[in-house]
Amino acid sequence: MKIASIGSGNMGGTLGRRWAVGGHRVMFGSRDPFSPAIHELLQAAGPNAQAGTIKEAAAFGEAILLAVRPEDVERVLAEAGDLRGKILINCTNRYDGESADHEVRRLARNARIVRAFHTLPWEVLANPAYDAGNATAFLYGDDPAAVTAVARLAADLGLDPVDVGSADAMAQAEAANGALWGVLSPKFGREYALRVLRRS
Ligand SMILES: NC(=O)c1ccc[n+]([C@@H]2O[C@H](COP(=O)([O-])OP(=O)(O)OC[C@H]3O[C@@H](n4cnc5c(N)ncnc54)[C@H](OP(=O)(O)O)[C@@H]3O)[C@@H](O)[C@H]2O)c1
């Protein structure tokens, strides 16, 4: 798949690199596509990766990962332009009590938005394999084909995708995840992960 990552930091850099190494074509949309940091990222991501402006990356990607700080979301989405028909993967979180999901839905009305990867620290996304099985990634979106596509991208990373089914369900999953984070991260640091065991 052709994937754009707007943001090349912890989240965008990790996911974009792993997708490129796994055979997807990736373009990082950056404020400075020629920076030393992007150069280093492209070296690590290999021949399937390239960098461009945010607008170029948005035009390139069939799926676009939005991986910037919450305060930059509005500006980069304006720069990306019309995302009609594109899958927009929203992994951003806000820390002010407001919903990052609502904000991106308001700002990118034409996109096929899938909320995913935001419940996992980048260290787990870098390596989701544990002795007992792989880490679960909760996701949801209104467009079933887009959700299926992002679930496949999650599985390509070695994650165990679970569609929670609705925006309300995701808000509850996020709240539960956040509450557990408060309890578990003091014990296990940032690299613990949850897995949903179910009968198939
Ligand atoms: N870190 C985690 O473990 C984690 C987990 C779940 C969710 N999230 C969410 O994912 C999003 C990204 O987090 P992150 O940790 O990847 O952030 P980060 O490392 O700071 O990376 C953010 C990227 O945004 C781009 N950017 C665009 N405009 C910018 C500006 N004005 N100032 C600084 N950077 C700008 C930069 O890429 P260029 O320099 O190439 O433009 C930068 O690499 C956040 O919304 C965060 O809440 C993070």
For the structure shown, list the relevant keywords.
200 residues, binds NADP nicotinamide-adenine-dinucleotide phosphate, eight-stranded mixed β-sheet, 42% helix, 8 helices, Rossmann fold, single chain, alpha/beta, two-stranded antiparallel ribbon, globular
Descriptive notes:
By secondary structure, the protein is α/β, with parallel strands linked by helices. The strands form two sheets. The protein has an eight-stranded mixed sheet with strand order 3-2-1-4-5-6-9-10, sandwiched between helices. It has a two-stranded antiparallel ribbon with strand order 7-8. The chain has eight helices and ten strands. It has one domain: Rossmann fold (3-Layer(aba) Sandwich). The chain is 42% helix and 20% strand. It binds NADP nicotinamide-adenine-dinucleotide phosphate (NAP). NADP nicotinamide-adenine-dinucleotide phosphate (NAP) binds next to helix 1.
Computed CA radius of gyration, to the nearest angstrom? 16 Å
Number of helices: 8
- Annotated CATH topology: Rossmann fold
The named CATH superfamily? NAD(P)-binding Rossmann-like Domain
SS-derived structural category: alpha/beta
**Any idea how many domains?**
1
Helix content: 40-55%
Q: Which percent band covers the strand fraction?
A: 15-25%
| Oligomeric state | single chain
Write down the overall geometry.
Answer: globular
